[in-house]
Amino acid sequence: MSRINRAEVAKHHSKNDCWIVLDSKAYNVTNFLSEHPGGAPIILKNAGSDATEEFKKYHPLSYLEDYLPKEALLGPVDPNTSGQLRQIKDTNSRKPSKIDPNSNEIPHVSLCVSTTDFEPVAKTVMSHKSYIYASSSANTGASIKANIDDWGRISFRPRVMRNVGEVDTRRKMFGHSSPYPFYICPMGTMGTIHEGAEPEMVQGAVRKGIHTLVSTASSKSSEQIMQSYVDEQRRLGNGSPTQLFYQYYMPVNKDKALELIRIVKRCGYKSLWVTVDVPVVGKRTADRRLQAEETLAVSLVDEGPRDREIGGDNAFAPAMGGRPVQGRLTPYMTWDDLEWVRKEWDDPIVLKGIQCAEDAKLAMEYGCDGILLSNHGGRQLHTAPSALMTLLEIRTYCPEVLGKLEVFLDGGLRDGNDVLKALCLGATAVGVGRPFLYALSAYGSKGVERCVDTFDLSFTPANICSAFRGAGLVPVQPDTFLSKLDVQLRTPTPLATIAEVLWQTCTPSNTRELEAQSTLIRDRVQRHQGSSPASIIAAISQLQKGAEVMILSAELMRDRIASLERANIAVSERRKRKKKRIQKRGVLTKGAGEDIIAQREADEQIACEERQGGKRSGVSRQALARCSRCRETGHDSRTCRKDT
């Protein structure tokens, strides 16, 4: 393959004839413009130039073989040619910053004492486009606002005079211990935020011992990220408890999906977090507005919607602007897909993006090891429920999930108090995203370490001694230390498969009515009709009343049966005592004694008459009662004095 002159590449910089240099090779990407996930403008802006560094901010270079057809490769660029590539003016930001993160022009990292301190610093360092990507949300931002605001709707109920001398904030995620009850969320294309990208984030995480979740949409490959983890662990003598988990976006093609799982397994990631809340990409208004500006800048305003459509993903998953890559983000995933995922993956599986109690229970029934309650950082669905609201819903309608699965949540956590509230409500651990992203952008791995410290301030023994310990918040006891757990649920999710029935409550009087009432309540809970549980509570009260009546009746019946059994035993004992011989301490009643005396007198009278020669009838003779032991009259076997 012949070498390409640089000057020749520079000539091809229009939408009808677009060449670009990537990794010292020239590509004809004219036919790829409409398919690029970031949209055509970002390619056209770099047309006729070397876009390698810009490309690496979003994708690993290995993606070139996966997504560009072989015929797009024109050949290697000749570095010795005199011609120059097209020079690109940097318009990445409307207000490009000249501040060096290592200079004295930004606050020292030690001055960041709250997680919110990182964002304004990062905003001065990041390009405008990168900041828009990191901070944007769906539509008008209602979901991301709810993520943050809902934590303020839960308050503590401090208790005093409690023995809280021992404090242990360590948590385990699938058996892997960490000194912190929180982890770093997955975030894509970190190369746009910091030149060190995901490896820089991982290095800071390893030094602090915090678990980290890696995104499929990373700027670096899964292998590169894991290698940076291994290298940092080796440098620390393998003493860090940090483990890497993998956020998995399922491609449409099953072979590609299996291939990705095998790569993740081969790399050594400890669990697979299957993303289920991005069947399609949400409308991210700020991203769309930015790309409209870029479209205008490269004169594509009059092009068709296919050439300038926006809102999407890179590679496997959502990233900055554009559409999802065709075939890389499946909208067809169902619960049945978990079967083949489980066959391929032996370690824990987590469903990332659960947003209602019904799906949480289904995840448990389908054998998942954990769930992550998340609305994708408020970036997917407008007015989606916050993870906190979903957690409250699970506690109300299917609390058994909290006992059988490891339950994680993310979204809007900005302080250690928020973390503690989540733990009190039953979460295994919580994820933190944007604060770490801003910290990485502003200060690199040192910022990541500092961000961990700002969260951990609420969990240090010294802090607990002065605040939480005095409030009795350790050890954690959810039902004791939190109030406002009756936050009105705002996510009614009726099941379309259940027909509408008239809601009636009654007190059951038999087992059949009890079963019917129980079924009615169970269906009502599953359908979540209305945001208020008042009708369900009323039905449960009636059910309780009926059950109490039946239980009381059963207790009375048991008492009556026991009384009759005792009476029968007493009668039986009396009968036994009557049959016992008098000589052996038997009992003779007054009536029985009078009968014996009367019989004896009758026998004497008969005997006297016989001696006088009087003859009695056969009937009279038959009336004589004789002892069954000695065959004499005047007594019976019980009063007989003769031994056989």
UniProtKB/TrEMBL annotation:
<dbReference type="Pfam" id="PF01070">
    <property type="entry name" value="FMN_dh"/>
</dbReference>
<dbReference type="InterPro" id="IPR008259">
    <property type="entry name" value="FMN_hydac_DH_AS"/>
</dbReference>
<dbReference type="InterPro" id="IPR013785">
    <property type="entry name" value="Aldolase_TIM"/>
</dbReference>
<dbReference type="Pfam" id="PF00173">
    <property type="entry name" value="Cyt-b5"/>
</dbReference>
<dbReference type="InterPro" id="IPR037396">
    <property type="entry name" value="FMN_HAD"/>
</dbReference>
<protein>
    <submittedName>
        <fullName>L-lactate dehydrogenase</fullName>
    </submittedName>
</protein>
<dbReference type="InterPro" id="IPR036400">
    <property type="entry name" value="Cyt_B5-like_heme/steroid_sf"/>
</dbReference>
<dbReference type="GO" id="GO:0046872">
    <property type="term" value="F:metal ion binding"/>
</dbReference>
<feature type="region of interest" description="Disordered">
    <location>
        <begin position="609"/>
        <end position="628"/>
    </location>
</feature>
<keyword id="KW-0479">Metal-binding</keyword>
<keyword id="KW-0408">Iron</keyword>
<keyword id="KW-0560">Oxidoreductase</keyword>
<dbReference type="GO" id="GO:0020037">
    <property type="term" value="F:heme binding"/>
</dbReference>
<feature type="region of interest" description="Disordered">
    <location>
        <begin position="75"/>
        <end position="104"/>
    </location>
</feature>
<keyword id="KW-0349">Heme</keyword>
<dbReference type="InterPro" id="IPR000262">
    <property type="entry name" value="FMN-dep_DH"/>
</dbReference>
<feature type="domain" description="FMN hydroxy acid dehydrogenase">
    <location>
        <begin position="107"/>
        <end position="484"/>
    </location>
</feature>
<dbReference type="InterPro" id="IPR018506">
    <property type="entry name" value="Cyt_B5_heme-BS"/>
</dbReference>
<dbReference type="InterPro" id="IPR001199">
    <property type="entry name" value="Cyt_B5-like_heme/steroid-bd"/>
</dbReference>
<feature type="domain" description="Cytochrome b5 heme-binding">
    <location>
        <begin position="1"/>
        <end position="78"/>
    </location>
</feature>
<dbReference type="GO" id="GO:0016491">
    <property type="term" value="F:oxidoreductase activity"/>
</dbReference>
